[in-house]
Amino acid sequence: MFTKPDTLRLPITISCLLLSLTLFSQIRIASPYSRFGIGDLSDNNNAWNNSMGQLGLALRSPYHVNYMNPASYSAFDSLSFVFEGGFNGELVTLKSNYQSVNRNYASLGYLLFGMPVTRWWKTSLGLVPFSDVGYSVADYEEFPESGTVVRLYQGSGGINRLFWGNAFQPFRNFSIGFNASYLFGSMIRENQVLFPDSLTALNFKEAVYVSMNDLYFNFGAQYQAKLRNNLFLNLGAVFAPTLQMSASTDLISTTFLLASDGSESVRDTLVITEDYKGKITIPLMIGGALALEKNDQWKVGLDFKWQNWEKFKAYEMSDSLVNSWQINAGAEIIPKIDNYNNYLARIHYRLGFNYQRTYLKLRGDNLNEYGFSLGFGLPLRGMKTMLNLGAQIGMRGTTEQNLIRESYFKLVIGFSIYERWFIKRKYF
Fold it and tell me: How far, in Å, CA of 367 to CA of 192, rounded?
């Protein structure tokens, strides 16, 4: 007889996605540059893309959810289901002209699902970070009258992205797609002026709490041309229109005394602003890419993205941000995927490079970032499930003009589960 496909798995999938929301509330970054704009942008944390220099606009795979270009979902097998998840860790060294400090953190990186709806319509669900805020910076000054004065700047939070993606194949070798995302999150920024040498001086604290949420759409297209002998040329393009994201702000300014044990005793509340509503602009983004690949043997590609951050506004106020752009290049090599007697030949070897001019220009210097990445896809025996390992080393910023240079080492550990779901099984 015939049995129906397992209809209980989709509710379980959605439940896992929703339960993971609590894991995204932790601090996921340690960067003083996340103080500006909407924080440090999280373009892609997928171990597959990250290992290839965050390459992805022209890549297609039935085994991975490539949410960088939603048109890529059309590569999903019409009878299979893809589930991916992973964790990120980072070790950061912050260096100025005066000192060097190490920071580290670990967090849930991504949770992704992909599946077919029809032969020409494929869909995806995912939960990923959109931006991160996490910093703590202190500035010390000495004055003859008041002694040491400490200016402390702290921030945490960020924006999360819960998306539903769809891809369609209206013509042979041509796909279009979109991600309908719900952006949500909060950021806390605190500025303090402290007088640690005095028990009677009034210290000052300003705390700004910003909550954000809105719908966000981005679109993509891919064209795949067959050249010869299983050699393909892929072209990709992405576009995200400007979003005026809804936000509300609470602001509290207080003065307080510091006790000898470090506890605070509030004296006056100077300003209270509750639930002040406004808009935060997420500007337009465009990108294009090409990739060359040979089925189950190798692939190589190049991406370019540009975003109009000069149009950024928060509550109708402009910032000193500049337009950003980035270049990503990467490759994946599989020596011999069907050689079951040689496991090393079946490993997916990945490497990449990325260079970015970020949206920050501080003290006349553009803040640039570059990184090198390396990774491996380790197939499990007898299955199409894979363990993905990725590592990246890079640098952002400079110590010139009394700025801070970040040197980082990132590690991504993920898995991709590929299962045949939508098959009616026959029993005799």
Answer: 26
